[in-house]
Amino acid sequence: MTTPMYTTSIPVFKQMLGGLADVLRKAEAHAEAKKIDPAVLLQSRLFPDMFNLLRQVQVASDFAKGIAARLAGVDVPKVEDKEQTFADLQARIAAMLTFMDGLNPSQFADAATREIITQAGTPKEKRFTGQSYLLNYGLPHFFFHVTTAYAILRHNGVEVGKKDYIGTY
Description:
Layout lengths: L3 H4 L2 H24 L4 H5 L10 H20 L13 H16 L13 E4 L7 E4 H26 L6 H5 L3
Helix pairs in contact: 2-4, 2-5, 2-6, 4-5, 4-6
């Protein structure tokens, strides 16, 4: 039996990461067809003070794995941020999907009330219930970075649309 916390997290992460992988494939094909150095797209950003495409994908995948792990009550897998190519980003997304496939819905049975403590890049910790962590913190951050990665590519002429962003459901 699946639990509400499982069904509102893992399938969503898998769908959106699958869509992101497809968008990245289209971006790589676009770069090849237009004879654009792939690094140009990978280093692109919407504004100078925002993360570039590489970092947006890294952070989106970090949110997916971190949220999934914390809600399941398992250790968050350590992943180095050393991707430099589209192939590297595809491998990272594939690793996140494999990790989530290994989680059992029963691990999420008490996830809504589980205490989640984070320290998002600062010494100041934040405390959440699992439900608040997922709905008010995790999903908004995840969607922000997936959306921004999509927007960077669309802004740079990659022919993608809403169907590409949404992925397969």
